[in-house]
Amino acid sequence: MITLKQIKLACTGYILISIVFYITGLFCIIFPDFIQSYGRFLAGIILIAYGIIKIIAYFSKDLYCLAFQYDLACGIFLIVLGITTLCIGKKFKSSFFLTALGTLILLDSLLSIQTALDSRRFGLSSWKYILLFSIVSGTFGVIVLLKNTLFFAGCALLAEGGMRHYIVRHTAQLPDYRYLNDNELSK
Questions:
Q1: What Rg value do the Cα atoms of the chain yield, rounded?
Q2: Alpha helices in 31-149 (DSSP H)
Q3: Which tens digit of pLDDT belongs to each residue from 145-161?
Q4: How far apart are the first and last CA of the chain?
Q5: CA pair distance 63, 84, nearest whole angstrom
Q6: Exposed, middle or buried by CB within 10 Å (0-12, 13-18, 19+), for 91?
Q7: What span, in angstroms and rounded, lies between the C-alpha atoms of 141 and 84?
Q8: Contacts of 53 by beta carbon, 8 Å cutoff, 6+ apart
Q9: Average of per-residue pLDDT across 98-127
Q10: Nearest residue to 46 (alpha-carbon basis) of 56, 54, 36
Q11: C-beta neighbour count of 9 within 10 angstroms
Q12: Average pLDDT for residues 49-71, to the nearest whole number?
């Protein structure tokens, strides 16, 4: 039953990080001065937390293994990026951070497009919406790369949060434990 706890923890973590993305995205749009002042510190903490959630998620075994299939490498990358963001401090230029954010969102969106295609092979009807969310999020990631403004970064974070939230809610399936024997439950 450890797997059940891990999946629930991973899903809860992803939903919480999606909420953090929603709030941070709104702050980027509504309170850009606050983000200019405290954004680096907040970003470092958020990146480390997101990386930890991704690593926990990777080691949980959901039914289709779709929602968390690329999370080990991404989790390690996020933790390193978060620590780097915290260590560099004021030397970390906001334009560089926005470029890194746009790249991160674009990469996550591209991996989610692959998740959508894998979902389609499994016969999940949600694959179309995963693809749509991924394209919207990736588009905002590209816009952040091109425009480098907090407004578009906020939009990209909102889209990323929505994409992550939807993917976890619609692909992280628990096995039906009523049909598994004791040996399979201990895995």
A1: 17
A2: 32-58, 71-88, 94-122, 127-147
A3: 999 899 999 999 999 99
A4: 8
A5: 35
A6: exposed
A7: 21
A8: 10, 13, 14, 16, 17, 75
A9: 88
A10: 54
A11: 14
A12: 78
